[in-house]
Design brief:
With about 240 residues, this protein is α/β, with parallel strands linked by helices. The chain is about 40% helix and about 15% strand. The protein has a four-stranded parallel sheet, with helices on both faces.
Length: about 240
């Protein structure tokens, strides 16, 4: 599993953001280390501390770095000069909080460094879609692959009072990622095509509310098992109802 480093000017800010992400990462989240504050404990960033965090977080599968403000990026770039394996480090342009949450959930599902980096690159898209602030030329949320002849599916209604908000969406993604199956979800009657159940950002961009009818499909060796567990989660309201 990849490691994650949160670089921030403020340690309390980083600790709060990491706590939020880890609460959504399940029982086996990736290693997340914090490199926050200046050398004297004031607001700022420290390249040497970042480099140390990079080495400590790297288990051999690489490290993704999330940063809060512009100068944190400069410090992270400088830290690469001191890191033991800079070729296994990816600096993400994602927004700090959304990026951390997405990175932790995606990494917990076993994704590679390249896959996690690609997923979090669009971490602000769910909010933009919800507010109708999507650029005309912006790519749509990640869609699933074309259905095959052995596709299985079910339809049900989301009962959570707040719909598939962050916590149940993260649970859905982590559950789908455990199975050897290509799982997709779509709103019945919605305009957005089915999206991959392994993408927290794509799922949240659907904006599924309470009472929405959804169709979940799956193909692959464990498609039936995946659908059975996912249907139980949705029908039970992810433990919120």
């Amino acid at each position: 599993m990849i490691g994650i480093v949160a670089v921030s000017h403020s340690r309390p800010l980083a600790e709060a953001a990491v706590d939020l992400a880890l609460r959504m990462g399940g029982g086996d989240p990736p290693t997340v280390l914090i490199a926050a504050g200046g050398p004297d404990g004031d607001l700022g960033t420290d390249a040497a501390a970042i480099a140390q965090a990079l080495d400590s977080a790297d288990s051999g599968d690489g490290v993704l770095v999330l940063m809060d403000l512009g100068s944190a990026l400069l410090s992270a770039e400088m830290a690469l000069e001191f890191a033991a394996a800079p070729n296994r480090v990816a600096l993400s342009p994602a927004p700090f909080v959304e990026g951390l949450v997405s990175a932790v959930v995606t990494a917990a599902g076993g994704a590679t460094l390249a896959q996690v980096a690609a997923e979090v690159a669009g971490a602000a898209e769910a909010k933009r879609v919800h507010l109708g602030a999507v650029d005309a030329d912006a790519p749509p949320p990640e869609s699933g692959s074309a259905p095959s002849g052995d596709e299985l599916s079910f339809e049900t209604t989301v009962v959570n009072p707040s719909g598939l908000h962050a916590r149940p969406a993260a649970t859905f993604v982590k559950t789908a990622s455990r199975f050897d199956a290509d799982v997709q979800i779509a709103e019945i009657g919605g305009e957005t095509p089915p999206v991959s159940a392994r993408s927290l950002l794509a799922l949240m961009a659907l904006g599924i509310r309470q009472g929405t009818r959804v169709r979940v499909t799956a193909t692959g060796a464990q498609a039936r098992d995946a659908l059975e567990e996912l249907r139980t989660l949705i029908d039970d309201g992810f433990g919120e109802v």
